[in-house]
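User: Sequence in, structure out. Go.
Assistant: Echoing your sequence, followed by the structure tokens.
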Amino acid sequence: MKDAPKVPVRQARTSRGLKSTHSRQWFSRAVLRWFEQHGRHGLPWQADRDPYRIWISEIMLQQTQVATVIPFFNRFLKRFPDVRTLAKARVDTVLHYWTGLGYYARARNLHRAAKIIQSEHDGIFPVCFDDVLALPGIGRSTAGAILSLACHQSYPILDGNVRRVLTRFYTISGDVSSVKGREKLWPLIQHLVPSKGSSAAAFNQAMMDIGATVCVRKNPKCLICPIRRHCKARALGSVDSFPTPRKSRARPRRMITMVILHDPEGRVLLERRPANGIWGGLWSFPECGSDSDIEKWCKSALGVNPTLRRALPIVEHGFTHFILEIHPALLTVSARDSDKLRSENRAWIRTESVGKKGLPIPVKNILNQIVRTKNDSNC
């Protein structure tokens, strides 16, 4: 989903709750004072102002918490320390180092963007807003975050944490994660961000930190919030009503069978998933419907005649909008059938050494389960 279009500062100054320069200055000073004493200053990507490092961190932090990102960031940067290394890497390797973070389109877009930076910007991360915005996977807020934090340019950001702070401070109703909802917030944050670049960087980081550590989703710590004095939601005693709660819906359940083909050499078959859809570009087992006759499906879909050995324990994996119930089934194929299944997007691998292929977490867990079962039978 693309960010909202840029809103002129002139319009921002007429937005409700921002009738004077004085209120703007008070808000910014309060936020910056708080950040100096209580903000997060020791995060790995804050060690320097390298746009590449900040770009990687901002993409990883999309829909993912800081504590989860830190070990992935350190491992990713050790393997891909600069744009050139990332651009030259195979997409399989990039996806392998992303495994566990989810939302794999982010990793594919990083790889595509690195190739563009390498070919069109001589491997140097661009510092022009329009050039950054043109890169795959980067919207207005992410572009603003990179140029603000790395280059001290005065651009606002509007991530989930900042949206929550603004929504409560100004009592903005409606779904502020939607395009229309964000259109209400862009003028506000555009007006608040300091014009001085270094102050804008500190302000943006402070707003993210306040949202992440003080103005949290549940049980916000209003008593220590630096902007509590003029917070409308707090004055009305309605902090928990903002942002407007979405109607909760039970996630539907989908069921699939993962077909684990085992050849005489002890290898299993993996195939690359399509670029679009869940786990796009990752390697997984072939799939069929949970009510399919597996042996017949293998004959019609794969052209082989396997023998069903046994069903493995059911695996559940939660996505944002549904729960996936996986029924793994282990089958054996002949050496002749094994040769039939060789192709560019299929690979026979040994369960003990999957190499550096990007694997979804459930697939990795199933492979580990097969290895444990094999080891137990050898004891």
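User: And one key feature?
Assistant: The CA atoms of residues 272 and 359 lie 9 Å apart.
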